[in-house]
Amino acid sequence: MNSPYGNYIGGNWRSPTEARPNINPSNLTDTVGEFAQGSTADVDEAVAAAQVAFPAWSRAIPYTRSQILAKAAAELASRAQELGIMLAREEGKTLAEAVGEVNRAAQIFDFFAGEAIRISGETIASLRPDVTVEITREPIGIVGIITPWNFPMGIPAWKIAAALAYGNCVVFKPADLVPASGHALTDILIRAGIPAGVLNLVMGRGRVIGQRIIEHRDIHAISFTGSSSTGRMIAAGAVGGETMKKIQLEMGGKSPLVVLDDADIENAVECALDGAFLGTGQRCTASSRLVVTDGIHDRFVAALKDRLAGIVVDDALKPGTHIGPVVDQGQFEQDLSYIESARSDGARLVSGGEALKRDHDGYYLSPALFVDASPDMRFCREEIFGPVAGVIRVKDYDEALAIANDTAFGLSSGICTTSLKYANDFKRNSDAGMVKVNLSTSGVDFHVPFGGRKASSYGPREQGRYALEFFTQVKTSYQLPL
Questions:
Q1: What is the spatial distance between Cα 170 and Cα 50, in angstroms, rounded to a whole number?
Q2: Is 18 noted as a catalytic residue in this protein?
Q3: CA-based nearest residue to 312, from 381, 364, 379
Q4: Cβ-Cβ contacts under 8 Å for 64 (sequence gap 6 or more)
Q5: How many CB atoms neighbour CB 48 within 10 A?
Q6: What confidence score (pLDDT) does residue 1 get?
Q7: What is the 3-state secondary structure (H, E, C) of 81-107?
Q8: CA-to-CA distance for 31 and 17, rounded, in angstroms?
Q9: Whole-angstrom Cα distance, residue 431 to residue 409?
Q10: Sign of the C-alpha dihedral, residues 294, 412, 287, 210?
Q11: pLDDT single digits (tens) 230-252
């Protein structure tokens, strides 16, 4: 396939009638390719193709599905460097992070290749004589998968692999900013042997493709990762529509990292650096609120400022780069607006927060660290999705916990401490779906559940065996002896 790259529907690549350039945020003169801008008609055709494919795919022996996923995993792993370069070009994360993401996608497909042959049920006694009861799991049907731009290979992998493992057909819409990764992943699954119509790729604008997926009466479920505002819109449309779609929503975060007086300061600084700034801060688990107790506050800020001074912001593909560019102009302007808002509200900038010039024009921003932040400031309440963090000074653990929980979000949280008492209390009382002790708030394993609380998540968890809860439905069967 050569640019312009088209959609994949019903087992065929379609030449696009409209295409959009995919621009490298590290180098605005570099075009990764031109990718289709699909239409509502494309979604309708994709759903129709999935309907045709579903009976055979849903009843295929589990080993058939397992082998296809395993082949996809092997190709992803063998091409990690090549695909990582492509991912870094279109999204802007460093090459090391991009290659790591491709390898993670391979691990996810390998995991679900195993899960495909481990689907189990139950046989239990009835309350009535001679009646047996079987509880089994079946695929939902046709799943609309809508993914974000910050992990353009990893997040599609953990949704698509699970959907296919459990016998569903998929209509996949990748984020409009990063279509190359979604296109490559689809191409790999085709070579792995995915039957026509089982996986359909429809690229394009969210307000066109995403909206049609929400509205379509023959799509039975939607798995979405993105902003809270879009998630609420999907929930309203999916549940209020004719089909009462099953929904899985992974949305925003405003994750706190609590640093107590007894913390190992070097580890605490590394946790903050990784959680708040690496990945250009473009992670829903980013710890943009650093909640630090009085006794360690000044030393922590000084040490973190020193570490930030050595961080290299540059081209994602350039050796030695620690942080790549912001993903696009819109996100770049949003980050700058939050930096200005923090200043206006009285926070004090002690490091970064400046647009940078590099060898090529790109969206480069030095990581911004604020002190004298307070929980009511806008930049401490809203998700920024950029390399911007504020330090909130507190007097003790109890105040730190209260401020950590004082948010509309509840995805991830962390604490740095050498106290078993406070570590255990935080794990029990932190109002988040994922809790880290002496670790960055970002970075999760692929075989355990991922998700949060409050405005961060809605519906069953993603990843690991917990993915079964969303991508299957339960059937209870009663039978008298024949």
A1: 7
A2: no
A3: 364
A4: none
A5: 16
A6: 52
A7: HHHHHHHHHHHCCCHHHHHHHHHHHHH
A8: 19
A9: 9
A10: negative
A11: 999 999 999 876 778 999 999 99
Whether residue 349 contacts residue 369, with contact meaning beta carbons closer than 8 Å, is answered with yes
Q: Is the dihedral of CA 209, 210, 211, 217 positive or negative?
A: positive
Q: Does domain 256-437 have CATH number 3.20.20.60?
A: no
d(CA 441, CA 434): 8
Ramachandran assignment for 477, one of left (phi > 0), alpha (psi -120 to 50 degrees), beta (any other): beta
Residue 299 has pLDDT above 80, yes or no: yes
Average pLDDT over residues 333-354: 98
Q: Are strands 368-371 and 348-351 parallel, antiparallel or unpaired?
A: antiparallel
Active-site residue, selected from the candidate residues 45, 90, 91, 250? 250
Closest of 181, 102, 190 to residue 147, by C-alpha: 181
The answer to whether residue 250 is catalytic is yes
**Amino acid in the structure at residue 158:** W
* Average pLDDT of the chain to the nearest whole number: 97
- Cα dist from 399 to 260, 294, 402, whole Å: 11, 11, 5
Rounded distance between C-alpha atoms, residue 238 and residue 250, angstroms = 15
Q: Is-contact 223 457, C-beta < 8 A?
A: no
Question: Percent of the chain beyond pLDDT 70?
Answer: 99
Catalytic residue among 45, 97, 169, 284: 284
Say yes or no to pLDDT of 3 above 80. no
The amino acid sitting at 198 is: V
| Displacement of CA 149 from its chain's centroid (Å) | 8
**452-470, pLDDT tens digit by residue?**
999 999 999 999 999 999 9
Query: Where does the chain hold its CATH 3.40.605.10 domain(s)?
Result: 8-251+456-479
Within the chain, which residue ranges are assigned CATH 3.40.309.10? 256-437
Tell me how far apart the alpha carbons of residues 322 and 364 are, in angstroms, rounded to a whole number. Answer: 12
- Class of domain 8-251+456-479 (CATH, top level): alpha beta
pLDDT on residue 239:
86
CA distance 38 to 8: 11
Say if residues 256 and 407 touch (Cβ distance below 8 Å). yes
pLDDT at residue 373 is higher than 60: yes
Average pLDDT over residues 252-261: 97
